[in-house]
Write the structure tokens for this entry.
Amino acid sequence: FSADEKTLVSGGGDRAVIVWDVEKREQLTTLVGHEQRVRCLAFSPVMDNVLASGGGQVNGGELKLWNLKDQKLLAELPAGRGEVVSLDFDPDGVELFTAGWTQFVSIWDVITARPKGSARAAFGEIVRHVAVSPQDDLIAVSGKEGLVYLFDLTAFREDGSLLATAVEQLLAEHRKPVTALTFSRDGKFLATAGDD
């Protein structure tokens, strides 16, 4: 959903991003440009007309920024080897965090559409999902082993690594892989889902 909750987007195996009008319950447009399946979508928290979409296959990712107002592709970012499985904007909408099928979390500058850096997960797992707190203080990442790690976002930005010393907390409630995670809009809660 967009921040104003008037627009919903969906994506899938048909490689299309569909934009929906929530109130009218009808399709507004279809954005075409992905060559592989679309796995994740996120609206900018400050610019409802900016949308990020990610996907691809295990051997190659796709990451795109869209202008929904003009229904045009703003930028195609070099996602690299791994499929983009998860993405999230920082609260200011100027940084985009991505993860999927590698041991890295990548940070992108939304304004310049260029990479700002990436950090290898110190916990030795493939990073499958990422979520940024709306309070701009924590980043949550999950691996394939059912664990969720909370990191100090300021430390992450400063040294560009997910060091074990930067772990705020380890959440180990899932017994199987985590399939999704998201913060509440006020940043007080983190919801996780898994194969268990």
